[in-house]
């Protein structure tokens, strides 16, 4: 598959790196007006260009990783030189039917919401599409399965997926940072505290993904009567640990929906 990524910011670069590292037999082009900061991608065989139209007519898949305010400008630029393409949009808040109308119903539209862990093959990429575009969308699903997980969801949940899967990266990192800071307070140097905190979160996530059980079932395994784990959990809950996280996620969703 020839993949053409428009938007060489953090997300676009993460996808390009992920494809280059974890997906076989694909050619990637990524565009950005100022390419100075992404020229290193060429070392991985990724084509870098400042021209959004660079070889785009040869692409099997066009991925938009741009800001909402850039969409009309980019489409005005590329639509005259492409036909019958699969366009995967990672543009926040841009509905499938809106993009289909903007492209005059002449292309196959897929909506995706990856996160920057794609470059490590660990993205949670939610995908939605119209039934009429299923045949063209399934190769996109396969591609992003190489970069992590790629559940197909109802489009009405895509804004929620943005918060849970993309914003959620920042929430998880904030927990790790706080755990690291606590580790320093109880005696570790910063690098050791960070290594322990990050690996612990990775291990917990891997257990959940592989065993497919409710988190509380795993919590029970490490929570003993009158032990140090339960008193720590209770102290966190008394100070609003879960409720603060839930409120933060819901607030982020309100921001997206306007």
Task: Give an account of the 3D structure.
This protein has 258 residues and is α/β, with parallel strands linked by helices. The chain has 2 domains: 2-153, Rossmann fold, CATH 3.40.50; 167-254, ProC C-terminal domain-like fold, CATH 1.10.3730. The chain has 9 helices and 9 strands. The strands form 2 sheets. The chain has a 7-stranded mixed beta sheet, sandwiched between helices. Strand 5, helix 3 and strand 6 (108-113) form a beta-alpha-beta unit.
Key descriptive features of the protein:
258 residues, alpha/beta, Rossmann fold, ProC C-terminal domain-like fold, 2 domains, 7-stranded mixed sheet, two-stranded parallel ribbon, 9 helices, 14% strand, elongated
Give a quick rundown of the structure.
With 258 residues, the chain is of the alpha/beta class.
């Amino acid at each position: 598959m020839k993949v053409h990524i428009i938007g060489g910011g953090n997300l676009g670069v993460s996808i390009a790196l992920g494809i280059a590292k974890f997906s076989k037999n694909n050619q990637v082009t990524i565009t950005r007006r100022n390419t100075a900061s992404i020229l290193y991608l060429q070392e991985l065989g990724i084509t870098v260009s400042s021209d959004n139209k660079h070889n785009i007519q040869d692409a099997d898949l066009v991925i938009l990783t741009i800001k909402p305010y850039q969409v009309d400008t980019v489409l005005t630029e590329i639509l005259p030189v492409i036909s019958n393409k699969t366009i995967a949009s990672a543009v926040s808040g841009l509905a499938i039917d809106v993009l289909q109308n903007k492209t005059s119903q002449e292309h196959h539209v897929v909506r995706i919401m990856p996160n920057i862990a794609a470059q490590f093959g660990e993205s949670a990429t939610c995908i939605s599409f119209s039934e009429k575009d299923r045949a063209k969308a399934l190769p996109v699903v396969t591609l992003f399965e190489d970069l992590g997980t790629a559940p197909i969801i109802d489009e009405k949940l895509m804004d929620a997926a943005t918060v849970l899967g993309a914003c959620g990266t920042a929430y998880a990192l904030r927990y790790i940072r706080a755990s690291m800071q606590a580790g320093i307070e109880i005696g570790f140097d910063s690098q050791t505290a960070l290594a322990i905190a990050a690996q612990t979160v990775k291990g917990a996530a891997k257990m959940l993904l592989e065993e497919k059980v409710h988190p509380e079932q795993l919590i029970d395994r490490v929570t003993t009567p009158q032990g140090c784990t339960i008193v720590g959990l209770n102290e966190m809950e008394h100070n609003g640990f879960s409720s603060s996280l839930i409120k933060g996620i819901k607030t982020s969703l309100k921001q997206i929906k306007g």
